[in-house]
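Friendly challenge for the regulars: who can give me the structure tokens for this chain first? No prize, just bragging rights.
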Amino acid sequence: AVLLLERLQPPGQPYWRTVLSYCAWGNLQAVLDEYLHHLAGAEGISEIGTDDELMTIAVRAREALTLRPSSYKAFDPANPGEPITFLSRFALRYGTRRRDDDEARQPLVRSAFNSPFWPFVLATTSIGQEGLDFHWWSHAVVHWNTPANAVDFEQREGRVFRYGGHAVRRNLARRHRADVLRSSGRNPWAAAYAVGVAGGSVGEFAPHWIFPGPARIQRHVSPYPLSSDQDRYQRLKDDLVLYRLTLGQPRQEDMLDLLRRRGAAHSTDVVAQARIDLRPPR
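First reply, four minutes later:
Bragging rights claimed.
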């Protein structure tokens, strides 16, 4: 951003004025409105009414903005004994083999990734596939390897497919932008969700969990060509549908095996056979 500002700075214009122009072009006001709405919700604050509540949100935002870069070492084939040391801001690693400061740093990395600011890419092992939320500003999952089963598949993508996720907000803003701008409330995102509830037609999960629109949760899987990963990936997609049908069962893996033994070769066949049509007769 500094290099960009230096290039955009007209001759004779003060640097601070260029910074203000840059913030206006990027609509920093809207970015902070969205971010602070999430921070307040995470702290259980519906409406900021005290200095202590305001300070709590300000401290959370400061921690995300002041995250220090990570230092990494890369192998140098020209000089194997001397690794290449470099700093990274764009992408960070979540999880490490070492038991040192990196482990204590993980909550800070998670908070910074759940912000509209850097880091923009988070690389993690299976330590990040369960029990953590990465959905505030992320709606894409790149699977480094093909998951072993449908449970792992669902857990990985469930990190970004969550309440008030990025894809949901993009669709909400796309449809109700004009309604929000006409609102007299101080919190535009509270107004957006209120309008989404009033105009929703996809059930009680809208607008916080799902909302129709072009933005979707993106899945990127790269199975090795001519390998068993391709067949496994196709089977996993079928199993994923069956897994979602068995939610609530105490032992879902056993239920999936039972469905397969009874001839459930394809999830679409099972869905068609197991569907109970509760619509009233015409």
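Residues 31 and 116 are 7 Å apart (CA to CA). The longest helix spans residues 228-245. Your move, everyone else.
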